[in-house]
């Protein structure tokens, strides 16, 4: 083996060791149960929180915290530790609970799983909803199965007891809480793993909201039957039970439950889907509003087609020069005289709302910037729409009258000139016609011709 190969193997081993030791243990809450019958004969369950540790290691390892209950998770085909890689301990919530098989006692078909097992669930949640994992911990017992429901005779666990377990089944989602827009096709992640081959697996998806529950999908590996759609059969063979929704509507909101049954275990994972549609924001004025001093204008900011109902619309006034300053700029002043329309419920179940005020123009407001800011849960930052007010001084009444009189006078003079020119043209045309008529008469009478010739001679 060459030096280069040894170096590669060394760094690979170091990386594996670091990833395995990334989270060697977790501080958890063990929710214990005390079951009893009350005076009326009904079963009552008292939940008792207890300090516990989930520790990854080998059988016989010493507990990290000897003063707490330790659930020692030993190596198996399923690696719970790997499913939480890439996060810090402080980002996780850990809870361990007892699990009842509801009186069903069957041999778990995994290597070393002989006799009766006691079961626990270890639930790991990311505090920012990046994922959620449920692991079933199998704790072999040398005691025979109880002759009644196991929860009626839970074996006591001492405060410093170490319970050696292995992971028998995992169910994980990376989308515990999903926010989607209308008419989208989100994929709800659900992955499962089982520590033995060929299990009889039943996968189901249900939707529920406001007391209503509906089955969306069902698959059984033994019969091969599929009811519903949204999950790929080939993907199921690899443990991928992710569900793809059809185009989302408002009625798509609710809880989606991915459940897995491998007798005697039943696990479910609740995924919450929220529909969020961002608002469209508009103003009824342009970027610049020009008003004459003393005039009044209704200014409307409208947020349309948003969901859910939670929306906030604010109006602010500011000097536009100050808005570009980073240091020492005065804060925008919120306007108080704002009126609101009622919420409009649109046909697609979205909402619309308007916020308006009456702006009276004054020279002191000229050059001011007015901004409408709309906040909504679907927005990372508010949407802002602005305009700048330009105020003009009103024109003088006497000046307007003088200009009007001049225009009227000029119009009158122009009309008289046109009439005069028209009448002179008609008179000239009459004289020309008369002269032409006399000339025609002279051609017919020689005396007239003689007279005209004499007249021409005298002119010469």
Automatic annotation (TrEMBL):
InterPro entries: Ig-like_dom, Ig-like_dom_sf, Ig-like_fold, Ig/MHC_CS, Ig_C1-set, Immune_Resp_Modulators
Keywords: Immunoglobulin domain, Membrane, Transmembrane, Transmembrane helix
Domain Ig-like: 155-272, 279-388
Keyword Magnesium appears in the UniProt entry: no
SMART domains: IGc1
Listed transmembrane segments: 397-421
Signal peptide extent: none
Name of the protein in its database record: Dehydrogenase/reductase (SDR family) member 13b.2
Keyword Transmembrane helix on entry: yes
Highest rank taxon of the organism: Eukaryota
Lineage: Eukaryota, Metazoa, Chordata, Craniata, Vertebrata
Gene3D superfamilies associated with the record: Immunoglobulins (2.60.40.10)
């Amino acid at each position: 083996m060459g030096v280069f190969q040894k170096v590669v193997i060394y760094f690979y081993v170091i990386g594996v060791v670091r990833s395995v030791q990334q989270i060697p243990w977790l501080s958890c809450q063990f929710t214990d149960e005390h079951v009893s019958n009350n005076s009326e004969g009904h079963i009552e369950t008292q939940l008792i929180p207890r300090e516990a540790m989930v520790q990854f290691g080998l059988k016989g390892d010493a507990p990290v915290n000897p003063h707490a209950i330790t659930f020692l998770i030993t190596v198996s085909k399923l690696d719970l530790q790997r499913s939480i890689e890439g996060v810090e301990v402080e980002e996780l919530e850990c809870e361990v609970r007892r699990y009842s098989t509801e009186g069903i006692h069957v041999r778990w078909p995994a290597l070393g799983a002989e006799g009766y097992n006691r079961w626990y669930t270890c639930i790991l949640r990311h505090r920012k909803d990046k994922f959620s994992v449920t692991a079933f911990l199998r704790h072999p017992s040398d005691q025979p199965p109880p002759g009644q429901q196991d929860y009626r005779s839970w074996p006591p666990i001492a405060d410093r007891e170490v319970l050696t377990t292995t992971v028998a089944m995992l169910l994980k989602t990376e989308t515990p809480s999903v926010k989607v827009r209308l008419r989208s096709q989100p994929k709800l992640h659900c992955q499962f793993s089982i520590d033995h081959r060929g299990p009889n697996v039943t996968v189901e998806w249900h939707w529920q909201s406001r007391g209503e529950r509906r089955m969306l999908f069902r698959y059984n590996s033994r019969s091969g039957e599929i009811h519903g759609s949204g999950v790929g059969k080939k993907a199921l063979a690899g443990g991928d039970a992710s569900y793809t929704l059809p185009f989302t509507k408002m009625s798509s909101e609710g809880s989606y439950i991915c459940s897995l049954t491998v007798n005697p275990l039943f696990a479910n994972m609740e995924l919450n889907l929220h529909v969020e549609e961002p608002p469209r924001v508009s103003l009824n004025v342009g970027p610049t509003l020009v008003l004459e001093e003393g005039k009044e204008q209704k200014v409307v900011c409208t947020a349309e087609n948003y969901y859910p109902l939670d929306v906030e619309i604010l109006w602010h006034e500011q000097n536009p020069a100050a808005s570009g300053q980073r240091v020492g700029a005065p804060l925008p002043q919120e306007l108080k005289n704002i009126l609101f329309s009622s919420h409009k419920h649109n046909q697609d179940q979205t909402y619309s709302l308007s916020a308006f005020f009456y702006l009276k123009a004054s020279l002191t407001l000229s050059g001011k910037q007015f901004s409408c800011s709309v906040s909504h849960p679907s927005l990372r930052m508010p949407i802002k729409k602005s305009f700048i007010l330009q105020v003009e001084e009103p024109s003088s009444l006497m000046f307007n009258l003088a200009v009007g009189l001049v225009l009227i006078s000029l119009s009158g003079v122009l009309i008289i000139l046109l009439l005069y020119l028209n009448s002179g043209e008609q008179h000239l045309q009459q004289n020309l016609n008369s002269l032409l008529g006399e000339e025609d008469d002279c051609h017919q009478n020689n005396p007239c011709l003689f007279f005209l010739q004499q007249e021409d001679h005298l002119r010469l």
